[in-house]
Specification:
Radius of gyration of chain A: 20 Å
Oligomer: homodimer
CATH class of the largest domain in chain A: Alpha Beta
Number of domains of chain A: 2
Helix content of chain A: 25-40%
Strand order of the largest sheet of chain A: 5-2-1-6-7-9-8
């Protein structure tokens, strides 16, 4: 139970869903405060039956706040969240800025809740494409020890924020009408296209989004020996990231065993009947907190390999839901 | 040089492009005949400055034909093409029906031209997703011997024929307008979605499209030991298939070496400057006969691995262009 919970970035794509989840899941708090940039300050939002006026995010705004849930750009998180920690608040951060800091816990509650409970400073929520993948990896890693992951992503435009979806919608309409459209969130047209770059060039020809999947996976699973080869691609889907994943385990895992392991993992739902054309897709996975897994099959190229297809709502389990689940974990204290 | 060349399936998505290529590339033939189903018979088309009336495809229609280029559904190819062979014609087939028949040559002219030149019966053109992949594999296989390929595809709706693109266009318009649309070419909505099934369930949880990438690759490269693990996915792109490919070679290949090998291969164009956001995409690869390769980088999970991104026009090099190139090879005779 927290007295005062502050949501930073309350008007963003993820912030909006965080508010929705706090209300729907009856998050145990006496007061909520909403913080955002000066541009949004003064506006009012409804939360848990109350009208709340958005306050401007400043270094001094965290006085009396017990828990901060922040979803902001990296530079905002870098600048303001240390002030929240200094003011004595527990801080859950959605941004990418703090995740790999050795003093910061990087948490998926189903995987490493103890990291959140023991955290002294900021608790980071992973990158959306990492979260769904590590949740799928966890039961396989426990059962057969994952040595290697090869992943190709099919990522939604909502991962680029509200402007990403505006670009998809308006760009697509323009393309259908043969009109021009100037994209703001993407370097190339996303309508009827596939863009094999998310983030900037980070190292060795890999993008920042791809290297997140390498480093965050190791930190969350607590195993620096897991090798990851990622390819991150933006496709014209508005919401839900899809991932084609191949894992190699020390001990081979059969398809039946994998299905049973996935089905027994909280947060995972198996949808897998190819003969009935039944598998996860963005169209049947959106607005859900689950990670959906299908197309589970033996790797045809390696006896220790297992291939599957994984879809999840990147704004929910990939972002807002994971943050709220961390908050619930802190509120329970166990 | 051929006297009479017949194009079967002249009105289809691929057939239309075959006619265009024959004209633009000044294919050496005295006469062209156009064959199609009874529904299209009697219609007229322009080809090489002449008006040609479409004739109905029958078992007896191949009399006097020297070369047949056919792009039809599998069952049509199964029924009629043996009659063309019997009538003494050379036959190039785009369908999937004959490819894996041991008496049939499966040809990508840059890779195994001798198979076409030595063929006694039908010469098959590979599946579109296979063609661009094997062309990319060939120089790497020659240099370092490929042992294993892991590929995830991002396939365009034009691969499902004219109706595939109608579905994408009309389904997308309906989705933007909040209206209903009944898809004809796809089991699920393709607008703003990703469908991880192309073809039917073939074996071991893999689809027919995926197994084509396994078996056709081995046959074209003449190496039954190459292991392939494919995942084929339809995305809302109208034309050009994209592929996230990872190869493992016996002898490691560096990024610089791979770039040089790709650049020296006829039919391949390297587009690879991540810092300048330059890489192949459907939007910059359509209506070209090339296979475009970018995002070339070392596999982070295996010293013998190399990852890259490959895009090509599935109706051109993936279908029509490859068939016409085989025809040109037969006409040259070397």
């Amino acid at each position: 139970m927290f007295d005062t919970v502050a949501v930073v970035g309350a008007t963003g794509a993820v912030g909006t869903i965080i508010l929705d989840l706090l209300e729907k899941r009856n998050f145990p708090a006496k007061n909520f405060r909403l913080l955002a940039s000066a541009r949004s300050a003064g506006k009012q939002l409804q939360l848990a039956g109350k009208t709340i006026t958005i306050e401007e995010l400043t270094h001094d705004c965290f006085e009396g706040v017990d828990l901060v849930i922040a979803s902001t750009p990296d530079d905002t998180a870098a600048e303001y969240l240390p002030s929240a920690v200094k003011a004595g608040a527990k801080v859950i951060d959605e941004s990418g800025y703090w995740r790999m800091n050795p003093d910061v816990a990087l948490v998926v509650p189903e995987i490493n809740p103890e990291a959140a409970l023991n955290a002294q400073g900021i608790i980071a929520s992973p990158n959306c494409s990492t979260t769904q993948m590590v949740l799928a990896m966890k039961p396989l890693h426990d059962a057969g020890k994952i040595r290697r992951v090869i992943v190709s992503t099919y990522q939604a435009t909502s991962g680029a924020g509200l402007q990403g979806n505006i670009d998809l919608q308006e760009g697509t309409r323009a393309a259908l009408d043969g009109a021009d459209y100037e994209y703001k969130a993407f370097a190339h047209p996303i309508a009827f296209n596939a863009i094999p770059q998310i983030g900037s060039h980070k190292e060795q020809g890999y993008t920042s989004e791809e290297m997140k999947m390498v480093y965050e996976t190791r930190k969350i699973l607590g195993d620096e020996t897991i090798m990851v080869c990622p390819t991150c691609v933006r496709i014209p889907v508005s919401n839900c990231h899809s991932e084609s994943i191949l894992v190699e385990t020390e001990k081979p895992i059969s398809v039946d065993e994998a299905k049973a392991l996935f089905a027994a993992t909280p947060g995972i739902t198996v949808v897998d009947d190819l003969d009935a054309s039944s598998y996860p897709m963005p169209s049947n996975s959106t607005s859900s907190d689950e990670v959906y897994i299908g197309r589970i099959r033996k790797d045809l190229s390696n006896p220790n390999g297992l291939a599957f297809w994984c879809v999840s709502d990147n704004l929910r389990k990939g972002a807002a839901t994971n943050a709220v689940q961390i908050a619930e974990l802190l509120a329970r204290g166990v």
